[in-house]
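Notes, p. 3: input format for complexes.
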Amino acid sequence: MTCPLCSSSELKNLGDFKGHKKLTIEFYLCKICQLLFKDPSLRLALEQEKHRYETHNNDLTNSNYMGYMEKSWKLILGQLDLSKSSEIQILDYGCGPTQAFEYFGKKSEVQIDSYDPLFFPKLDEFKPYDGIVMHESFEHFYQPGQELATACRSLKPDSQLWIHTQIYTDDTDLNTWSYTRDPTHVVFLTDFCLEWIRKNFKFSKVVTLKSDFFALIKKAK
Ligand SMILES: [Zn+2]
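Output follows (221 residues plus zinc ion):
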């Protein structure tokens, strides 16, 4: 087995922890990039995974969900120079079935494309973006290294990657952390891993927008 982010085989087996429905989850921590990930054999089949997303009830008419997404959208807007908003191109990477940011983008005159391998699989890999947002999608990536590489190829020299995901810390108890109970959540960032991504994907700095939302900033040389 190798790390799904950096491909290292230097892994620490953290042992078995409680999952949902009395399931046992085995976790691994990569010794090189410090990504935490679940035993890959626990991953859902594609149809099961899709079905689970469809039962989330995250649609444009759900005011709780849209209020939550709007807060994130405002944090993204705060990172942008809106003087030429109509020229800003953003990709919502792993948007799920809803395309919520595309909805907010239209209201702000920011151009947003939505991509999701299960629901909106068309991705123009040659289109350059000013920003890419992975909003609660990173933790679902079976191959986070490949997903980040794909996304970063589409970033302009001056651009940002926003990742919204919860961070695993030394204080996290894997027996009670609700974030790992979702069977579609398979990989988890640590602070070290975020810094590893910054360095290895050539970002100049990480800005913490809130405890689970980060902007990785790319600057033209
Ligand atoms: Zn690794």
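Residues 3, 5-6, 8, 30, 32-33, 35 surround zinc ion (CB under 6 Å).
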